[in-house]
Each structure stands twice: as C-alpha cells, then as structure tokens.
Amino acid sequence: MEQIRKAFYPSPIGVIEMTGTEEAILTVHFTARKKAETSEWTAALEAGLRQLDEYFAGERRTFALNLQPRGTDFQRKIWAALLEVPFGRTATYGEIARAVGRPAAVRAAGAANGRNPISIIIPCHRIVGATGGLVGYGGGLGRKDWLLAHERKHAGPAGGLFT
Length: 163
Known about the structure:
CATH topology of the largest domain: Arc Repressor Mutant, subunit A
Largest sheet: 3 strands, antiparallel
CATH class of the largest domain: Mainly Alpha
C-alpha cells in the first residue's frame, strides 16, 4: 500500500494542508495551523504546491494535476462538474445538479459540494446560492469571498456555461 504524505502551503488566506501519494493528490483543505510545517513531499504534492503558488500569484486559472478524490459515484460526478465552472465565474447548486443530469437533486448536489475533499483545485468555492449569494464553504465565507474576488481580478473575458 502506498504511503500518504502531507504538505503545507502558506496561502494568503491561511495554511492549506495537502495530502497525496507519489502519483496523486487526495485532499486539499484549510487547516487551523498558524504556520506551514515542513513535510515530506512527493512528486504529486510538489506539483500541487507549485500550482497553488501560481494560482495565488494570479498566474494559473486551471490546475493540471492527478486528482483522486474519494467519494461516492454521485459525489465524484458533482466534483467533475465543479471542474467545468470556469475560473472567475460562478454556478448555482441547481446548475450543477442539472449538469450531472439530476435537476431535482439540488440539495444532494449541495451536500456533495460540501464534501469536496480537494478544495480550491476542485473549485467548490465557485458555487453560490440560487440568488447568487455566498452560501456555505468549509473554509469559511470570508475565504470564499476572497477566492472569488481573486479570480474575478485575474479572469479574462467571460465565456462558458456558467455566470
């Protein structure tokens, strides 16, 4: 069995903990730690940390990483739909439910969004309420607002399926 390693990233909005194997990223989430710790990086973690650095510098709009989020088939479909929401744009829970062919499953889509184990890279922060308001984010609404403002600041021309 492959060993899971941890890496820490000191983002502008708090320390991020990333876990992964040599080949894949498993989790990315904010941690209560006040400062990043040293860790034993794998190739996958090193790539993830580098791409987070580029994202926070405003130089990266999409991530090119091997992601292996663990969840149900429905959750993985929702998380795949989140990856389709363009940088600097938002979508509603209803739009995500429709995107996976389950238009009545808005609450289930919201629950799956809330269980996203790979924050920022799988952009659950881009999902807003039906009226466009900020609702729910495991990292806190202040961070969600910051991430959306950061992306709007660095986004190019509008386009795509979502607002």
